[in-house]
UniProtKB/TrEMBL annotation:
This is protein disulfide-isomerase. Belongs to the protein disulfide isomerase family. The keyword Cell wall biogenesis/degradation does not apply. CDD domains: PDI_a_family. Pfam families: Thioredoxin. Residues 104-219 form the Thioredoxin domain. The chain crosses the membrane at residues 6-31, 38-62, 68-89. GO terms for cellular component: endoplasmic reticulum lumen. It comes from Elysia marginata.
Amino acid sequence: MSAVVVVVVVVVVVVVVVVVVIVVVIVVVLVVLVVVVVIAVVVVATVVVIVVVVVVVGLVVVVKVVGLVVVVAVVVVVVVVVVVVVVVVEVGQRDRGTSDKAALAIAGAADDVLVFTDSSFATEVAKHDVILIEFYAPWCGHCKRLAPEYEKAATALKKAETPVPLAKVDCTVETETCSKYGVSGYPTLKIFKKGEFSKEYDGPREADGIVKVMNKEAGPVSRKLETVEQAQAFLSKDTVGVIGFFESETSSLAKNFLKVADQLSDVRFAHIVDEKVKEEFKKTEEGVTLFRPKVLQSKFEDAQVDISATSTSALKSSIQGEA
């Protein structure tokens, strides 16, 4: 019996020891698990905290940066707006200044064209040796197109070495004057000299052309050649030249010659009264000769043609026929 008891006791002791060991192992495992869980929780919590902190800090930084960008953008926009306003104002002032200058220039040019009426026409025309007058109607399209060119020419001729005035007459108002000079179409331009009608103006209608023609009209209709050198220079041009050989500038033929020269502004005229110069041309009597330059000479066109006509109309017709 004692042996059985001993065995039982031993078995019980072994079982108890095993149970204790198992319990201890379980406790140790549980403790380890708890520690691991705690560590994991701490780690996770730490990571979460770090992430939260990073996110918060990032958001703060972003907000600050965005705010700074917004502030900078607002400042830039304000500066740009101010600059644009200043530029617009400056350009506007310059444009107004340019417009004002242009308006003043146009007004000044318009002021350079004299305005004649029925009551003032004769008196005003008589004041000028040479004057060009436009007879117009305000509704006339051709007159409107001519106006700026006519005004430019008036300004240029006013400043010329020998000033030539330009004037105008409104034929819808000043009917008496327009009727007197036979104006039937618009614009009609006429040249007056020493208070009297001289001839119709049929030259260019642009400013430069008007200036050129009227400068010629303002000069002597015929150039007086007093030396052989002057005569040679006159004939050296590449255009037809007409020379009158006279006893004096007051002879009957000389007067008719000068009248024709005044009427034919597209032909060059000169005259000689000096005996020595006339001898160079072998001219012993009064007469008129047309000279052609070499470029116009041919077997059909003589170098020079003596004009036998003496009256104004015949002389004019002969020169026109040969020129």
